[in-house]
Design brief:
Layout lengths: L2 H17 L7 E5 L5 H9 L4 E4 L2 H14 L10 E4 L8 H7 L2 E5 L2 H10 L7 E7 L15 H9 L4 E8 L7 H21 L5 E3 L6 H6 L4 E4 L1 H4 L6
């Protein structure tokens, strides 16, 4: 069995084990940034369907190459592509054209552009608002206090479908601080869900905090390193 197959199976087993104690089901998003197409194909082969990418040009190259490699039997057509990286406004067109989800919306200008540039004929673009839960200056993401305003505006854009919120918590070795951030996210998520019935996604948890994130209500973990191995810094 290949390394990637082995990793995916063991992570899925862990998720299932953690979900045995939680009301929600947690999906696995495989974060394939900087990794080659062959790694994505291997993951697909063992049943992985949700993939996340951070860098627009790299992602679009992969998506297009995979489309070609799918012929003649549409082999990879079930892939669902999530954009999870920071978004510059000059990149929104490519994102709107190639992705199924965008998890890193943190300002209305970006949402508006994605809406306007979503090609007719494609399904609505599913979106999550990225929340800067630790309120660090250097991090992207909207402030907690801006969430509802942003959600209201996104909800009025016809080509976007609001699905939930995403965060990258501050790295910390303090379990209390870690828990506090995750619990805050869960509270925000529940309050958003109370107002917008189609909200069903709390995207949190990465390789190093998968378990606590699931225990705090995560419905989608985004895992790179534990599936594909360490990344060279970009
Ligand atoms: C890279 C990345 C991940 C995956 O992180 P790992 O620690 O490798 O699991 C998840 N979410 C976002 C937004 C990322 O940029």
């Amino acid at each position: 069995m290949s390394e990637i197959t082995h990793n995916i199976q063991s992570i899925k087993a862990q998720i299932e084990q953690f979900n045995a104690h939680t009301p929600q089901q947690t999906q696995l998003l495989a974060v394939s940034k900087t990794k080659p197409l062959s790694a994505i194909k291997e993951a697909y082969q063992c049943g992985q369907r949700l993939f996340g990418e951070n860098y627009v040009q790299e992602a679009v190259d992969k998506i297009q190459q995979l489309k070609q490699d799918s012929q003649p039997d549409n082999r990879y057509e079930q892939i669902v592509w999530h954009f999870i990286g920071p978004i510059q406004s000059n990149k929104t067109k490519l994102i709107a054209e190639h992705f199924d989800w965008v998890q890193s919306i943190d300002r209305i200008k970006i949402a508006q552009r994605l809406n306007d540039q979503r090609p007719t004929g494609l399904a609505k673009l599913n979106v999550c608002l990225q929340i800067n839960i630790s309120e660090e200056e250097s991090k992207s993401g909207a402030k907690q206090t801006q969430m509802f305003e942003l959600a209201e505006l996104v909800n009025q854009l016809p080509n976007l479908q609001l699905r939930g919120i995403m965060c990258i918590p501050q790295k910390t070795s303090d379990p209390e601080l870690q828990n506090k951030q995750l619990q805050q996210m869960q509270q925000l998520y529940l309050s958003l869900q109370a107002q917008f019935t189609e909200v069903d996604t709390l995207s949190m948890g990465m390789t190093n905090d998968m378990q606590v994130a699931i225990e705090n209500g995560s419905t989608m973990v985004r895992i790179g390193t534990a599936i594909f191995g360490a990344r060279a810094d970009k």
